[in-house]
Each structure stands twice: as C-alpha cells, then as structure tokens.
Amino acid sequence: MYNEKAYAAASETSPLAPATIPRRDPTEHDVQIEILFCGICHSDVHQVRNEWRDIMPTVYPIVPGHEIVGRVTRVGSAVTKFKPGDLAAVGCLVDSDGTCPECKAGLEQFCPNLTLTFNSPDKYLGGVTYGGYSGSIVVKEHFVLRVPANLHPAGAAPLLCAGITTYSPMRHWGVTRDQKVGVVGLGGLGHMGVKFAHAFGAHVVVFTTSPGKKEDARRLGADEVVISRNTDEMQKHVGSFDFILDTVSAEHDVNAYINLLRRDGTITLVGVPPKPLGVLSFGLIAKRRTLTGSNIGGIAETQEMLDFCGTHDITADVEVIRIQQVNEAYERLLKSDVKYRFSIEMASLKSA
Length: 352
Ligand code: NAP
Ligand code: ZN
Description:
Layout: E1 2-9, E2 16-23, E3 30-39, H1 42-48, E4 68-75, E5 87-90, E6 93-95, H2 101-104, E7 115-116, E8 136-140, E9 145-146, H3 153-156, H4 162-172, E10 180-184, H5 188-199, E11 203-208, H6 214-220, E12 224-227, H7 231-235, E13 241-246, H8 255-258, E14 261-269, H9 281-286, E15 290-293, H10 299-312, E16 318-322, H11 326-334, E17 341-345
Parallel strand pairs: 10-11, 10-13, 11-12, 13-14, 14-15, 16-17
Antiparallel strand pairs: 1-2, 3-4, 3-8, 3-17, 4-5, 5-9, 6-7
Helix pairs in contact: 4-5, 4-10
Bound molecules: NADP nicotinamide-adenine-dinucleotide phosphate and zinc ion.
C-alpha cells in the first residue's frame, strides 16, 4: 500500500479539498497508472452532493472521477496487454465477478457484483474505492483500456464515460444512416451523442434549453437545433423521431419528447435526475413507443468505442482546468456553463 494525493469531499456540503488516500501495490494482474487527465462527469456532482442517497448513498470522504487517461508506470507479472510508458484509460468500472451471465456476455456494467471506480466497496483495502481526482490508480488489467495514439489525452478522458454512455445505446438500438435522431441536452454526454449520431450518418436534432449553444450544436454535427422551451418549435417534430437520447441531469418533462417519437420509436434515458420523472402512459400507448434506459457500456464495447474514435478522430471538446478550480467547475456545470466537458490536468495536483 502507498499514499497518494487526491481531492476529496468530506461531506455532502463540503467543497472538494486536498486529501491523502491509500492505493494498493499492484498485484500480479494489476496495472498502475499515473493519471494525466480526468474528466468531470455530472455523476461526480450528483454523488459528491449525495443526490442519489436513496439508491447509492455516498460514503465520505469521496474521491470522484471515472474518466481517466494516464501513463502506465508499473504492471504485475501476469499482465500481458500493457507495459510501462503506455497510454491507458479507466472508466466507471474497475472490477466485476467475471462469472455471472452479464460478465460472460461482456456486459460487466450489469454485473450484480461490480466495483465502480469510486464509492464502491474496495475488496483489497476495505472502505470504498477512490476515483480519478488523484495522482495515480491501480486497476485490474481487464478493466484498463487502450487509447489510440492519435487522440489527445485531455479530450480522450471524457470518452470513458460520456463517450461510452452515448455510443452504447445508439449501437444497441441500431442508430443508422438516415434515421432521425434527437439528443436532449447539450452537455458532456449530449455533445458526444451528437458526434456519434452524426458519425453514424443519422439526421441529428439537438434539443437545448440554452440558445447560446445553437451554433456549437451545428458545428458538433447537428442538422437542426430546437430550443426546447419553445412549444411551437417542438410541435413541428411531433411523431417524427426514430430514436431520442435524453441526457438531462435535472427534472424535466420527458412526455414532451415521447410525443416526438414515430410509431415504434425509442427514447433512451441516460440522464439520472435525482427525482422521479412523471411519465404519461398515453404517449407510449398511442404509438407503441418504447421508453428505456442505458448504463455506460461493457469493457469490450468501451474499447470498440475508443477504437472508433481513433479511426474517426473523435474526442470530447474540453476546457482543461487545474484541480484547484474543481469547485468552481462544479458550480458552472450546474449552470450548464461548460463547453462541453471539464478535463482536469492532474499534474496540477503536485502543487496542491
Ligand atoms: P452536463 O454536462 O451537466 O449536461 C446536462 C445537460 O442537460 C446540460 O448541459 C443542459 O443542456 C441540460 N439541462 C440541465 N438542466 C436542465 C433542466 N433543468 N432542464 C432541461 N435541460 C437541462 O451533464 P452530463 O455529465 O452530460 O450528465 C448528464 C446526466 O447523465 C447526469 O444526470 C449524469 O449523472 C448522467 N450520467 C448517466 C450515465 C449512465 O450510464 N446512464 C453516465 C454518465 C452520466 P442544455 O444547456 O443544452 O439544455
Ligand atoms: Zn460519468
């Protein structure tokens, strides 16, 4: 075991502040990674503030961060895919049982015994796992991803959550060329959703509450942009979508989007607002529409997504910050004021 610098929150009302955390020495199957960049996901904010208390209560102190890209510093004797010096990445998962039907299907994100990158019971050290707002992390090889060399690490980090969370449902529900696809909310997830839907050849419509994001939405790959608070603009799209990805992090009217689906169309929720969404059954019944959800993606699909990004030169649009700016970044995220993901340069931790 060794000590590592990190940023942690001590309670749901505390700001993130410098802390020291334990990391295990790499076992034979482990990869030790010096963290270069860690993205800020809205899930970090939900959990630091204990907003999911009924389902996933936060254990304090919490060190968030599950969009990690770094450099391999040490590997265990049984590790075959990585060597010191390699660029490597870690997303939301660091372990699973490997034996259940979900794991056997390569869907580790649905394993009943999975270990999340932070705030999950730590099998090795006791307590809970600590995430990427830290100098290094030690992770089982199976959960470490390869990063294509042409992708800048700062922009690649958000692919590990925002990327896979939007790529996976579009692949699962078969988004293809010429389909009409909606993306609700142009934040970290939403802007990746636009990039992927565009890369898959779909006709992409962005729904935003922020008129100031209109031009960016088009630059990112949207064919049309709708200001969702304008009911006339919304009305024009009723009954026309094959697929809608809802990435909104706060309370909103999901029925307004269900009504935009054509017969047998699908809306997938990936956003996790702390309060329940009121769904009117009529909207689903009327056109046999489907309301579903999706949780990140499995390890094999995450690698597939990273390779797809390498081939198509896709990364997140990031604002690189120092760790000392993290609390200010959280406040801005809550105001939908980020273009379009904060990526923390972890070298800044050395001067913390
Ligand atoms: P984010 O960067 O804050 O983006 C959320 C976007 O939602 C905002 O940019 C804003 O877009 C829109 N929005 C915010 N408040 C709204 C409101 N009151 N009404 C309507 N629209 C609103 O967050 P993120 O990191 O993309 O995460 C989004 C959600 O996905 C979070 O709840 C997060 O926990 C969840 N998540 C889920 C998974 C999963 O596996 N399912 C994985 C990662 C994250 P506009 O300005 O364009 O309106
Ligand atoms: Zn996330």
